[in-house]
Amino acid sequence: MPESIDRLGSAFRGELIQPTDRDYDAARKVYNGMIDKRPRLIARCVDAADIIAAVRYGGERGMLTAIRGGGHNGGGLGTCDGGLVIDVSRMKGVRVDPEARTARVGPGCVWGDVDHATHAFGLAVPSGFISTTGVAGLTLGGGIGYLTRRYGLTIDNLLSVDMVLADGHFVTANGSENADLFWAVRGGGGNFGVVSSFVFRLHPVSTVQFGPTFWPLEQAADVLKVYRKFIVTAPEDVDGFFAFLVVPPAPMFPEHLHRKTVCGIVWCGTGTSEETEKATRPMRSVGKPLLDAVGPAPFPVVQSTFDGLYPSGLQWYWRADNFTELSDAAIARHVEHGSTLPSMQSTMHLYPVNGAAQRVGRNQTAYSFREALFAEVIVGVDPDPANAGTITEWCKNYYDALHPYAAGGAYVNFMMEEGQERVQASFRDNYARLAIIKKKYDPTNFFRVNQNIKPAT
Ligand SMILES: Cc1cc2nc3c(=O)[nH]c(=O)nc-3n(C[C@H](O)[C@H](O)[C@H](O)COP(=O)(O)OP(=O)(O)OC[C@H]3O[C@@H](n4cnc5c(N)ncnc54)[C@H](O)[C@@H]3O)c2cc1C
Fold it and tell me: Using CA atoms in the order 31, 103, 129, 224, what is the torsion angle rounded to 10 degrees?
């Protein structure tokens, strides 16, 4: 072990993994198989003391430093070439306080860990649509999921964080301590330090009404025209995202639909089955659905439904935008490109981001696009690296066709590395305040492997 790494080792209880180590290739892998980066050192932390040691080590040597939580980031921002990866994925652990309805969560947890722990108490944190995504990255970028309309974004339910700053100092940020930092981390990503612990507010969510309605592609335009109005006025205990998808050949779907490209809405209702049925009827009775299968399911089951379809290591290419409206012309473009999904796992989702999420003002957290009705994400996905070009091209073409109708910016967690202009467009007038806070807490831009906010000059 080189002398300098040995010096970190004496302050470090976790694992230090270098290119010559047997575990290196497994340890450097992230979720997106298109990302193939080779860090010089992976510091797998077990506690905040390890994070402090790793941050000081990287800082003193001027190393390019990435932070890795769940490793899911589309652009591979949880790793880097030739630098240091501060990997907190081993820092798991969830402590639920059922009386206070809060949970303290380790930064290495994925959402499945949290769902498992909170479900025992009939409670849940609003998170995403899949259980394998990291709590850390998803939360710090915003957090859009099945409970967004009812309970807001994940950051709207974040109460406090413990963090290690770029100079190695440990701080707590919440509504009363370091409130500027707390404002910035609610949407500003990993720009301000390494979070070593999260505290979330919990909500009474246990069994929900879950399942899809699928329609043939010929009805997609009609479905979208009803959906754009429906989702504005639908009761907030109903959430449903729109998708173009290929029906997976799974036993839960009738065989005649297997591998068929369709459009659909995936529902999650937090009311009773009668309430959900009544609230969703105006949408589910549009045209002639191919499948309409909504029924009760435990929330952790809902969250993990797509896990099998999207295992780690597939090729992913991402593009995203925000939309405040969906015009007839935009719908026509959607139908054109959504009908030509290039592989079974490729898809386009329109996530509604209204209801409770819109009751928070655009300057109340770093996350800016509160008035956007939909976060659109287009993903080209395939297991075979030989198809990387095809899925990328499809994704870019789809994005280019819809981008002229977009509101500007995008949800930062759905972006690849797309440059400063896109980052600034996503934060809008919050960017200037973020830059001032960045200068205060990270003046040298030590944490720059992210959707980067540059320190104010
Ligand atoms: C299959 C799939 C499904 C998804 N579904 C959703 C969804 O439903 N809703 C949604 O909102 N998003 C979703 N996303 C996007 C997801 O929010 C981002 O990819 C997010 O970056 C993942 O976080 P992570 O911790 O797993 O990623 P990582 O790659 O580990 O980290 C991503 C970034 O987060 C920051 N970071 C990580 N850990 C820390 C930490 N401890 N302290 C400070 N910064 C840190 C770093 O800046 C890093 O660059 C999905 C992604 C995938 C691949």
Answer: -140
